[in-house]
Amino acid sequence: MDIKKIMEERYAVKAFDETKKVSEEQLTKIKEMIKQAPSSFGLQPFKIKIISDKDTKKKLLPATWNQAQVISCSHLLIFCSDTKVSERINKYQTMLEETGFPKEKAEIYTNMMRDFAKNTPKEKLEVWSGQQAFIALDHAMLGAQSLGIYSCPMGGFNASEYKKILELPENLNPLVLLPIGYPADKPKPKVRYNDLFI
């Protein structure tokens, strides 16, 4: 299937078939496609919490304004910004060196990142890391669609409640949800603007 067809066939599923589950093999493929998402500096400053058990999804439902996709989906992907950027940079330097990147060049590159992290307020770092997470979200949606697995990006939820229910650490902040699975509904005609390009 070509990318244009994948984009055309993707739609926001409002009801998933609860009897059909995404296999571990398919989920692994989706994870691998998400890992390919580009990001600023290559740091990928985000984490994705994946929920599949119904009890946890039920706890999250009220914090999602009772939107049924959270319960009926096979897996719920929760994209979170990660503000522990300094730790990520240290790890990135090690990873660069492990690939054979010259140590001195790796240090120059990561020191540039450290300057950025040090001189950027925490609030702006969170916005920046969130922007990277949304790029990964697109990879997740299109990657899943390429496997015949549908999704529904969702911004309508109480992030602080999600953080509390899932007991997420201080550095992780939920940004957007992506339920995935197999549809029990039909797509409606897409409405798209023609005046996006100036």
Written description of the protein model:
It is a single chain. With 198 residues, the protein is of the alpha+beta class. The chain has one domain (3-181): 3-Layer(aba) Sandwich (NADH Oxidase), CATH 3.40.109.10. It is built from 8 helices and 4 strands; from the N terminus they run ααβααβαααβαβ. A 4-stranded antiparallel beta sheet has the order 1-2-4-3, with helices on both faces. Helix 2 packs across helix 7 and helix 5 (85-98) runs antiparallel to helix 6. The mean pLDDT is 96.
How are the secondary structure elements laid out?
Layout: H1 3-9, H2 24-35, E1 46-51, H3 54-60, H4 69-72, E2 75-82, H5 85-98, H6 103-118, H7 122-146, E3 150-151, H8 159-166, E4 172-181
Antiparallel strand pairs: 1-2, 2-4, 3-4
Helix pairs in contact: 2-7, 5-6
Separation of the first and last Cα atoms: 31 Å
CATH class: Alpha Beta
Report the sheet-strand fraction.
5-15%
Largest sheet geometry: 4 strands, antiparallel
Q: Given the C-alpha coordinates, what overall shape results?
A: globular
Supply the helix-strand structural class. Answer: alpha+beta
**Which sequence of SSEs, written as H and E, runs from N to C?**
HHEHHEHHHEHE
Mean pLDDT: 96
Q: Kindly report the spatial arrangement of strands forming the biggest sheet.
A: 1-2-4-3
- The appropriate CATH architecture is 3-Layer(aba) Sandwich
| Quaternary organisation of the protein chains | single chain
Q: Uncertain segments of ≥5 residues (pLDDT<50)?
A: none
Number of individual domains: 1
Q: Specify the CATH homologous superfamily.
A: NADH Oxidase
What is the CATH topology assignment? NADH Oxidase
What is Rg?
A: 18 Å
Number of H- or I-type helical stretches:
8
Indicate the percent of residues in helices.
40-55%
Tell me the number of strands: 4
